[in-house]
Amino acid sequence: MSRTKRSLPPVPPEDKPDSAAPAAAGEALDESADGAGQGAAVRGVSAEEIAQDIATAIVEKRLPPGTRLREEALGKVYGVSRTKIRAALLTLSRDKLIQIVPDRGAVVSKPSVQEAREVFAVRRVLEAEVVRLFVAQARPRDFERLEQHIHIERTTLEPRTSVGSAREKLLGDFHVAMAECTGNVTLTELVREMVARSSLIAMLYPSSNDPHCSSDEHEQLLRVCRRGDTAAAVACMSDHLQRVEASLRLDAGIPERQLDLVKALLS
């Protein structure tokens, strides 16, 4: 899905008691829609583009888990009918990025611990195949593309105060880029979905891992792939994903800090 030039405006959290949370969530998204003003009417925007734009906002942590996505407000943001918004939300629901809840509408998904473990288990299977295909058919320009991506990762990671969502999105995009290099469209779509769901998981269960470590592991993986050692490359990817999962605070449950944020945005 191609991304629209506009990104969904961020929904700011509000420190309000639980009884005021529904109003806070609705007002926040309504204000975002109003703030979009006349420029919100994106000319010819499709349901697919709207879905991609919202998905990007979720991955970039601008729409936290539990945020209610009101059709009316989204219609104002994108300048389209509620019918088109519903189609976009249905796509996001199929991708497990949002949930359609009876009597409440669409909300950004809140993955459980079990779902988090399942997502990483699936990623290990999918991305093992990505590595096999990549080692077998990667061209010089594919290696150059991933090397350039790692360079961008390092540049973004250098200022320790840089926005965490930007860092994490770049780290996830490396996996999608490697899948794209295989030429297998279906496999790439599956990896993209799992990476997006991993971003939701990382929002609820923060990682203790230094992002520099993930970037270093990407570089190590690429070196092994260059050697043409398929078994070693697959093991390298599996170990990398295992470490990412292990760094998440899954056993402790959802941190209270995140619960407060979610409560403030739920409706």
TrEMBL record:
Protein name: GntR family transcriptional regulator
SMART domains reported in the protein's UniProt record: FCD, HTH_GNTR
Lineage, uppermost ranks: Bacteria, Pseudomonadati, Pseudomonadota, Betaproteobacteria, Burkholderiales
Residues in HTH gntR-type domain copies: 44-111
Pfam families cross-referenced by the UniProt entry: FCD (PF07729), GntR (PF00392)
Annotated GO MF terms: DNA binding; DNA-binding transcription factor activity
InterPro entries in UniProt: GntR_C, TF_FadR/GntR_C, Tscrpt_reg_HTH_GntR, WH-like_DNA-bd_sf, WH_DNA-bd_sf
PROSITE patterns on file: HTH_GNTR
Superkingdom of source: Bacteria
Segments of this protein annotated with the region Disordered: 1-41
Swiss-Prot/TrEMBL keywords: DNA-binding, Transcription, Transcription regulation
PANTHER family according to UniProt: HTH-TYPE TRANSCRIPTIONAL REPRESSOR NANR, TRANSCRIPTIONAL REGULATOR, GNTR FAMILY
